[in-house]
Design a protein that fits this description.
alpha+beta; binds FE2/S2 (inorganic) cluster; binds iron/sulfur cluster; 2 domains; 212 residues; five-stranded mixed sheet
Length: 212
């Protein structure tokens, strides 16, 4: 067993469990800061972590980080900002407009000061700064690949002194690439089969609906 502090509460937990499991194990109720409950895909369980004997505070996902003796943990609320970036991808027209639209929606992106704050904050180890700079250079396909495994935890946005919102820029680029690319051939073929009636959909089939 290890002893640690989560949200200022001293708890005990088995050494091989995650911060999230430790919190639940200690009888605490989680009503926020959790989504996929351990899959590491929803980005909800943002925490600040300080290990015993270290000064540095790191940002992690609570469901992917193992507890350690003397660790201090604080959950980070989802935060909203006063100036949301809004856009409609369908208004972009063709891909010739992509760069112009990106600069209009994310004018701060070109102000990146290469501080690597976003890289250090990212619990998924993504090259966030590189993704931002590739987008600014117009290398949108390469930028979208950097953000492929982003879980939208927002920690890079929290860390960015220029208010660039790197993950939202990454999502924008990925949406843009998807909207200007040919859809997967299998998907197109299957939709055509459904439209032509060649493939029937039986909504009353067993398991056609999720369990209530
Ligand atoms: S890029 Fe940003 S939002 Fe995405 S996982 Fe990394 S820190 Fe979280
Ligand atoms: S935190 Fe912001 S300013 Fe710093 S490297 Fe990342 S995107 Fe650039
Ligand atoms: S609970 Fe979803 S990423 Fe941790």
């Amino acid at each position: 067993m290890v002893r640690l502090s989560i949200e200022g509460r001293e708890i005990e937990a088995p050494a091989n469990c995650s911060i999230l499991q430790a919190f639940v194990h200690a009888g605490q109720t989680l009503v926020e800061g959790v989504g996929c409950m351990g899959q590491g895909v929803c980005g909800s369980c943002r925490v600040m972590v300080r290990y015993s004997g270290e000064l540095e505070v790191k940002t992690e996902l609570a469901c992917e980080t193992l507890v350690a003796d003397g660790m201090q943990v604080a959950f980070l609320d989802y935060f909203t900002r006063s100036a949301p970036r809004t856009y409609r991808i369908e208004e972009m027209g063709d891909s010739w407009q992509a760069l112009r639209m990106m600069r209009e929606v994310f004018p701060e992106a070109s102000h990146c000061r290469h501080c690597s704050g976003c890289d250090r904050a990212c619990p998924k180890g993504l090259d966030v700064q590189r993704g931002v700079n590739l987008a600014v250079e117009g290398k949108l396909a390469a930028s979208s690949q950097v953000f492929d495994e982003c879980v939208m935890c927002n920690l890079c946005t929290l860390a960015c002194p220029e208010h660039i919102r790197p993950n939202h820029l990454g999502l924008f680029v990925r949406r843009m690439i998807a909207s200007t690319s040919l859809r997967p051939a299998n998907l197109i073929r299957r939709l055509q089969q459904i439209e032509s009636g060649e493939m029937k959909i039986d909504l009353d089939a067993p398991n056609a609906h999720p369990p209530r």
